[in-house]
Amino acid sequence: MRRQPSPLGDIQPDGWRAESTTDFLDLPNVLGRLVALEPAQADLPARVRERSLRTRQPLIEPGRGPPARAAQKFAPVPPAVWEFHIGGHQVMEKSLKDRRGRALSLDEITNVENVANVLVFTIDQMAKINEAYRTAFPDRG
Hints:
With 141 residues, the protein is mostly helical. The protein has a domain at 47-141. It is built from five helices and two strands. Strands 1-2 form a two-stranded antiparallel sheet. 9% of the residues are buried. Mean pLDDT is 76; it is low at 54-62 and 66-71.
């Protein structure tokens, strides 16, 4: 028995824009530059796992985040990490929001640390991708 087609199949473009052709032809160049970065990134998972934010310093500015015992505090989170948004949500704030007012378990501490480390990694990768794009297409800013 044949499956019914999706309503998405009814959505068709009216035409092909000239900019789409340029973007399509530029794509292999951008992908090639990103692939060229791959050898330098081979050890990234290990570097992310090794980076530790655990310390006796406060996680964030006073008045923000959950109260924590001295052994459960974190290194100061870089502003770019604290302010990083995905889908309209401030990631670090969202990951800490449900934990306010109570002591964190070891698993929760590790989770918050991992979230911060992944955000540092993501911000670094975004910068590299942006630089590769700017190098490939200097006229596009």
